[in-house]
Specification:
This protein is mostly helical. Helices cover 66% and strands 0% of the residues.
């Protein structure tokens, strides 16, 4: 089978019927609900940046291993996004709104070449959320709830199949589970940076104890 034979993969055979059902719900839902979900789907990823910013603010007084994980969280998101982009290019799955006749997306259907599988939004949201679990269980739990809402919104607005967002979530989770613990080993580097010009940004740190819901080096 040639590489071009796989170039326009039709994912409707996996869960196209579920996508169609969700799309019907979206079409019959109150306009205000659709509008809220459209806005969340479009700009909601910014909330995860705010979560990471809040984690940095809190970690200024935490153990250096915790700060290392906070600083690594956006890097983990970028790595997960990069891996997802490779997967997108390998599969090249058509968007459901371009594949399934009669589907009515709530936002403009992405152009050809903007592939559907896996969902970038899901990858970013779950990579950020799981990374934050290693910093603060409470913050990670809150971020995970919003990650689920982000993934669901991409199906609701009609631009992804359910399997797109499920696999995207899995990619983000796996990358974070691998890289976040490794980031904690960079605590000595953070200690050095805290003794220099970056001290105002990284904070003085504290002895490795459990404080205010944040995981510490000793607790691990």
């Amino acid at each position: 089978m040639s590489s071009r034979a796989l170039a326009v993969y039709d994912g409707s055979g996996i869960d196209g019927s579920l996508y169609t059902r969700v799309n019907g719900w979206a079409q019959s839902a109150p306009h205000w609900l659709d509008d809220v979900i459209k806005v969340w789907s479009a700009i909601g990823l910014g909330l995860f940046a705010l979560f990471m910013l809040y984690a940095w603010w809190r970690a200024r007084g935490a153990d250096s291993a915790v700060m290392a994980k906070v600083l690594a969280s956006p890097v983990i998101v970028v790595v997960a996004y990069g891996i997802n982009s490779v997967l997108k290019g390998m599969v090249e799955e058509l968007r459901p709104c371009a594949q399934i006749h009669g589907s009515v997306p709530l936002e403009t259907c992405p152009a050809a070449g903007d592939w559907s599988f896996p969902s970038n939004h899901s990858v970013i949201a779950f990579a950020a959320a799981i990374s934050l679990w290693f910093v603060s269980r409470r913050l990670g739990a809150v971020a995970t709830v919003f990650a689920v809402l982000m993934a669901a919104s991409r199906v609701w607005v009609g631009v992804h199949y359910p399997h797109d967002v499920a696999v995207g979530a899995l990619v983000g989770i796996l990358v974070a589970l691998v890289l976040a613990p490794l980031a904690g080993r960079c605590g000595p580097l953070v200690d050095k940076l805290r003794s220099g010009a970056l001290r105002p940004l990284l904070g003085p740190g504290t002895p490795p104890v459990v404080t205010r819901g944040y995981a510490s080096h000793r607790a691990q």
